[in-house]
Structures are given as structure tokens and as C-alpha cells.
Amino acid sequence: MKHTQKSASLRVPAALMHLPAVRSFLEETAQAFGFAQGDCFRIGLAGEELFSYVCSLESAGGFLEVILHSVDYQIRVTFLFDAQQFDPWAFNIGAHISPDDEASLGELGLLLASRAVDRFAISLRHDGRIELLVVKDKTYPETPPEAQLPVQAGNRWHIRNANPDDIRLFTGWVRQFCSLRSCPPFLNSAGRIIDMIASGEYGMIVAVDEKEMVVGGALWHERTDKAFESFGPYTASEGLTGCANDLIEGMVSRVARSRAVCLLSRWMTPAMPSGAFELLGDIALRDAEGAVHVIPVGYRHLKEDTGCRVWTAPELEPFLRSEYDRLCFARELVVARTEGEHKPAHSVFAARIDRQRLSATLTAVLDGYDAEENLRRQVAAFERETMLNIFFELDLSTAWQAALAPILLRNGFVPKLVMPYAGTADIVLFQKAFAS
Amino acid sequence: MTRPSAPDLDFLVPRHVRSFEPYIPSKPDAELKKLYRCDHLYRLNNNENPLGPPEAAQAIIAEFDPERASLYPSGDSYYLRHALAERFRLDPEQFIVGNGANEVITFVIKAFCQEGDNIVTADKTFAVYEWVATFSGIEARLVPLQDVTFDDEGMLQRIDSRTKILFICNPNNPTGTYWSEERLRRFLERAGPNRIVVLDEAYAEFVDRPDYPDGMQLLREYENLVIFRTFSKMYGLAGLRIGYLAASISLVDVIRRTGVVYSVNSIAQEAALAALRDDGHVLRTREHVAREKQFLCETAERLGIPAQTGEGCFVMMRMPISDTLVYRKMMQMGVMIRSMTGFRYPNWIRISIGLHDAMEACAEALSSVVAGER
User: Fold this and answer.
1) How large is the ipTM?
2) Which residue in chain A is spatially nearest to B328 when comparing CA positions?
3) Is the Cβ pair A305, B327 closer than 8 Å?
4) Among the CATH numbers 3.40.630, 3.30.70, 3.30.160, 3.90.1720, which is that of A307-436?
5) Contact between chains at A258 and B21 (C-beta distance less than 8 A)
6) Selected residue with higher pLDDT from B71 and A102
7) In what order do the strands lie in the sheet with B348-352?
8) CA distance B335 to B362
């Protein structure tokens, strides 16, 4: 069956009188694109909150472009508008709250919009427009336990691109044989995986034995322009070392000539062949019950490292030198210092929120004198919103970003790992230490 | 903050270009040595000839009159085409000389393919056929190698009514495997006359096997055949960028329409002309390559690393860790090899044959990498 991506857009003045039109556009279009009523309602609700927020800004008065884009497994709504007509500062999460003022914490602004959806992101695009993105995953029935099939792995297998029936067989056993820590939530539904693969946004290969039984699988998708994320390798029994190796080679071969510079993996399994991925480090994720899961982050470079120059703050330099030596990446480190130059009053940090993982990730968009205060404000807003895992991705391509490192360190963030070429240059991932 | 004059690239750039990742070549040696903190660098990544160009070609380069730099070269490499014709007993009009064989690949795809057409080649071969097709909006159908060799049957099965060109790299870079004349003839017969068959013979001069086909001679029998050759490999002129194609006059007449004249500079044309006449250089190079390949294979065996050795001036080895990590580790030791993930050979590296001191440095670096993983 040919799956198609669909989209519709609406251009509308930023005025509250158009709120019903925006909501009905989102709900009715999502419905027309085949999504269930509950999903449509939630996407309409998120859109309504976003639109209201934009209209409430003093500088409002321009137009917004609202784009609803759907693939079979997900709806994405993008609000686009010119940053010249709206103050970008207002798109800092919690811009209107003070971390020291308990009363203002009720005014969570943009966070309200994120509550109805699975993921939410604010970013400043290269064309100078501000982009607000909300993502709602389609609701799928979970593949029932009785559908799990007994798997008897043969001694020979071959690797092929997964077809829908392969996926059904794979989903039947994957959670039975693999630790839940190695299985992302989407693996609980064959229907979801089938749609994800059909969309072209995810790739999947399977190992099939002589009896046409699926005995292994691996998946990947484009996480950013430069980095693909991989899942697995999943094998039906522990003895299938060669199968895991073939899955990794099959996956790497399939992305080798893509735009990706690297494969990242937060979902490695014990079957991962030794030496297949390098260990960048680990992050700790706290779940809603308070349990902390340590997640190793694997890395596989897909190109030859041409080396590059990166900026660092003096406080970050020992960490970077140690990591670059360990990973054998050629980097010229240049120390960024504050030289007394003028900068804007207000900084802008973009945010991504993943409600499934209770995580929020910040990136720096614009420097400003209020950077530290802004960071504290955003962290307070996230904590209030029960985002238990807070990250900051610092791109080392510019001196001003590197110079933010001491602010992060002063506010409880710890450098966890370096992701080579994950941004314009390398990215250092900081994680906010858990409150005791 | 906004950039009102920024062009709308979503509108301007075709989808097939937008989704294409540009190839980033390595930095100059001086920059790499600084970055990797090494005091020397052996480049064993580009399959260059470690003996350099033939002496006569070196003399041409050394004696080139700087004042001639202000004059355009021969627009169609007139004398070189005549020399090629004489050597291969063909017509000068059967040759097109380009700025490296990469340029003639582009000429051929532009000449025969339009939107909706496809080319067929292997998945693990020289990448430029696939790249040029892809960024030109032409589908590249990739057939997995069989026993590390181009799969004739698989390629024939992928042909449809929109297939215009079949690219065969013979011997194949990076596996060094080749089709015999008998196998090639069988393929040409089955492919039929209505598709272009390109035989890329970039490494032909390295092969000394009785069953290796001479594509130039087959041109007399197959009007749809196009041969690529280069002066970058055996003749050591990679830095001057010069390669050529040969085909029937009627095909060349079409391909010439999409070619760019004056793209090959004067020194390159004259050095190539001189190089072509030095058969002793070919023999010396073959002897050197055979000797150093043997050394590399013995090294691989000693280290317990599987190696794939065929024709050409290179050897592939399967490493116990990611090839891109091996690349970085060996760079720190001043040895630059080719990581093979980009060839869809993850964990493999390709080592070009260099002078013996470079081979020894390479063997030492390989030993160190392997020791670090055990």
C-alpha cells in the first residue's frame, strides 16, 4: 500500500477573533487525514493554546502560517511567523515567570500547549522565522501478549528490508527477549512500526532464518540533519552473535551514503557486537516513579573525520580535551573569553519537550545579558512541569555558546558527553543534576 | 536577526539536490598534521601511484613554459586523442578527454538520462556513478555484489524500460575483482544494444591476467559500449585531473554535446601524451604493487585480519572495530587510509599501495590498532 504524507496550511492574522478558525482547521484537517477523534481534539487544543499565546504578545499584529503535516503515525503542527514581528524573547519557555515568584509559576505560557501533545519544540529557523512545533503520535492498540510467538532461531539467516509481516513477527517477540530498557515504547505496537517504516522516516531490517522466521531486527531514523538514531540490534536469542553483527553491518551500509554523519544509539542491546559502536558516555533518566535508568549513548561515525576547530570555555577545556583524546577526534580547541563586547539584553533558548521521557532539552539561539537568569527561569518552569530530566545542548561552533558553559556549571548542569558533528560543530550535552 | 534577502532555498533547490549530502574531501596535509598532532603523514587513501608519473611526463611538467599559462589549452585535447587512437587502433573521434574520469561520468549520464530514467550498478563500488545520477534526479539502482564481484544476473534483472546505463567497474574498486572477457561478452549480449554499458577501466593497466577483457578492442563489436580510463592511477597524474572515454563515433557524437570543452589544461594533456608512451613505467609499477601487496597480505595474516586482495593498487582489510575509528587512530600515527563505510563496507578499510617505508608505517599502525582491541 502506498503511504503518503499529507499537509494543509492556513495563513491567518495573529488576532484572537481567529481562534475558532485555527482550532477547527486543525481538528477537521486531522480528522480528514484519518486520525481518531481523541488525537484530533488534543492537537486542536495544543494549537489553540499556542495561537492564544502568540496573540497575547504585545508585539503581535503580524500573520502566522499554520501548517498541519501528517504521516500515518503522527501529526505535526507548525506555527511559523516572522521574528521581526514578534519578540523572540517571548518564546523562551517561562518567559513571563520568575523562579523566585511562586505565583507567577502558574503562568506557564507555552508549556500549556505542550501538555496535550507528545513533543513540543521552539526554534529559530535559518530563514529568520520562529517555528513552534507540536507533535502528537497516533494512538495505536498495543500488540497483545498472546500474539507473542515462540521463536526458534535457526543457524542460518539473511538480512532484508522489513516488510509488514516481518514486523508483525518481530513485534511478537521483541519485548519478550529484550530488556525494556533497550526497547523504545514504539516497539509495543506492530501497527505503529509498520506505519513508521511506510512513511520512509524510519528504516528497518530483519534477519530471517531458513524457515522464514524473523530472528533479528534493527531500526533507525533521522534524528537531525546529521545524526541518525539507531535501535537494537534485537535478536531472538542470545546465541545469535553473528546475526547481530550482520544486522549492524546491514544498517550501517544502508545509511552509509545518506546525509548522516553519524549514528547515535541510546537503545543498544546486550547483543551489540563489541567494537561496533563507540561509547560516548551515559545519561541518567529518571522515570515518573523516581527510578533512575542509566542510558549508555553509543556512537558510530560514518565519515572520515576531517577535524575542525571548536570553541571552549576555560572551565570546559579539561573535559573536552579528555573526551577528544579518548575518542581520537582531531580538534583545535580555542578558548572563548568574555572580551567586554556589547550583547543584547535578552537571550533566547529554544526548547524541546518529550513528555514520554519526561525530558526537556534546551539549545542556545541568541546570547544576552540575561542568559543566566533566563536559564534559571526555564529550569524552574520545567521542574514545575515535572520534567525530571533537563538537558542543555551546547554547540561548540561559536565562541558565545561555548562561553555559556560556566553559567551551566554554576546552575547544576554537568557535561555528560560530546556528540561529534551533531550540531554546526560538535555538541556537548549537559544534564541538570537531579535534585536530592 | 532576520535575513530578508535570504533566498528561499526550499523553492529554488530541487528535491534531489536538497537531500544530497556533499562529499567533503580531506583537508590539506599540513592542516591534518596539525589537527592530528603528527609530524608526518603517509597518504594511503586515494590509490595514487607511489612511483609518481613516468619520467617523460615529469620532464614535461618541469619544463612547462609559465608564459603558456595565459593561453587556452586545446579545447578537445586534439593531440592526445590522436595518440590514444593510434595506441588502441581506433579513430580519434572515438575519444573524449575530460577533467578526470569523474567528468566523463557526468557527460555520459547527462547525455542519456532524463527524469524518470535509471542507471544500474553495484552497491559496493566506486561511488561517483551513484552520486552523479542521484544529484541529477536519476534513480540509481544498486545491485549487491555476489562473492565480492559485480552480479551480472542481478543487474540484468533490475533493467526495465527506463534503464539507460549499466555501470561496471572492472576491476572493481574496492574489491579488485573483475569479469573475464567471456563473462563480459555474455553480459553484453544479454543486455542488448538498447542500453549503454559503461566499463570503467580505471585500474586496467594494473591487471596482467590472460582472461581480463580489453574493452578497447570490444568497442569494435559493441556499439553501445563506453570505456572509461584515467591517467590518475597507473600514470600518476592524479593532481593534473585527466581521464577519457572511448566509444563508437555515433555515441561520442551524442556524449560530446553534454561535455565541456577546454576543461583539460595544457600541462595535463601534454604530460598524459608523454606518459602514454612509457610502457616501462607500467611494468615497474606492477612489480612494485605486487611486492607491497604481498607485504600487506602477510601483515594482515600475522595480525589475524581478513583481507580482500584482487587487481589494482589497493588491499581491503576487515577490522575488529569501526573503520572510521581505525581511520582516526591511524591518522594519529601519521597513516591515512580509506575507511570503507562510504563504500557500504562497514568495518573494512582500504589501503593504497605506497612506497615501502609507508607500507611499514602502515603495518606498524595496524598492529597497534589491533593490539589495542585485544
Assistant:
1) 0.83
2) A328
3) yes
4) 3.40.630
5) yes
6) B71
7) B307-309, B314-318, B348-352, B338-339
8) 6
